[in-house]
């Protein structure tokens, strides 16, 4: 049986689990791959750091370049743009195949690295980069390649789902839950990437690129994170029978392809509302297949390692069987939908003076901007003097531009004391 040399770059949350599985399950993996997968070394920053005692100490090295130069397969789990990008380029340039979970790098340079792989008869696989353990990239790229995908919508960041879910179910504080998500190995090295939606935006760009056969630039993804979501927003959502989730949405419409990431209100009966903890779920709509849903663990060392090992076995099989790589399909150029044209529905919370004519003047601004109100709930607080009322308004779908103009004009009304929250709504 052939032996393939596997270099592992990084021994953090995911890398350590990949090393464990490569060592523990060596014989099973060899059977499935048709070749022995020999872990030749693990690139780390400091070989003296205390780590899992099951991994032989002699595997650790700080010479990542030498490791890459001797490998048939390189598994990159360092994270960040550099030196990950340079090392992946180095491996592909010499014909070694690469598996990575680095969505930040792929969203920035995925098309370029895929072309480099193809030019050097090497493979580049990255199932772990989107929605952790969930097989989603292969279904989109392979299983649905005979169909036309119209929309991809999902929860693709485990850390933020873990935080929002804990705030919803236990009333926990944002910062405490973030620390727990970090301790459990869900968060990025810099958790700002999770909390501000950048990680989900990178995943959304990758999903859109594969789903719509194009190279969708990260800079064209509209991105809003969850850092401004308060316990009050979560409680108000609960009162209204809704839940707040960070959604990534990529859709093809008449005005082109729009990709956005933002906190979203969902009815509690919506399937995505039932996605708890660090789990992820992705809905795909295709012209002929209809609706599909993929669900599973979106973060964490072992689940993510599962996706990495799946790619490693697939890569090894092809190295063993040989033959030309399938040609890269021509990338279609796309019109990027202006975010102002995206159709959404808003839930708006307002604190207003409880006086005659307030509702009428608010309703008139909605009408002037062509935004239709679907539901309105008013709670009056008579204990305060003068009395104030809290309004919760849900709109029908309209363009972002009309909705934001409406909120801006309403905020200017003298009777409007505060715009408490503005959240987009899906599934209503
Ligand atoms: N943790 C998760 O749930 C998931 C992570 N990923 C991705 O997988 C990759 C790794 O993630 P984690 O293991 O969570 O990160 P981590 O921060 O736990 O591990 C990265 C390791 O690489 C090491 N490292 C960084 N630069 C290095 C260098 N120049 N030389 C040697 N070692 C270096 C760090 O010291 C650290 O030990 C990232 O790209 C991440 O976005 C993807 C899906 C899920
Ligand atoms: N930090 C990411 C890890 C997986 O991609 C997340 O929380 O989803
Ligand atoms: Na995945």
TrEMBL record:
Stretches assigned to the ACT domain: 347-427
Pathway(s): Amino-acid biosynthesis; L-threonine biosynthesis; L-threonine from L-aspartate: step 3/5; Amino-acid biosynthesis; L-methionine biosynthesis via de novo pathway; L-homoserine from L-aspartate: step 3/3
InterPro entries on file: ACT-like_dom_sf, ACT_dom, Asp/hSer_DH_NAD-bd, HDH, HDH_cat, HDH_CS, NAD(P)-bd_dom_sf
UniProtKB keywords: Amino-acid biosynthesis, Methionine biosynthesis, NADP, Oxidoreductase, Sodium, Threonine biosynthesis
Catalytic activity: L-homoserine + NADP(+) = L-aspartate 4-semialdehyde + NADPH + H(+); L-homoserine + NAD(+) = L-aspartate 4-semialdehyde + NADH + H(+)
Class of the enzyme per the UniProt entry, highest EC level: oxidoreductase
Molecular function GO terms recorded: homoserine dehydrogenase activity
Pfam families in the record: ACT, Homoserine_dh, NAD_binding_3
Cofactor(s) needed by this chain: a metal cation
EC number(s) reported in the record: 1.1.1.3
UniProt function note: Catalyzes the conversion of L-aspartate-beta-semialdehyde (L-Asa) to L-homoserine (L-Hse), the third step in the biosynthesis of threonine and methionine from aspartate.
Entries under PANTHER family matching the protein: HOMOSERINE DEHYDROGENASE (PTHR43331)
UniProt similarity note: Belongs to the homoserine dehydrogenase family.
Name under which the protein is recorded: Homoserine dehydrogenase
Species annotation: Paeniglutamicibacter kerguelensis
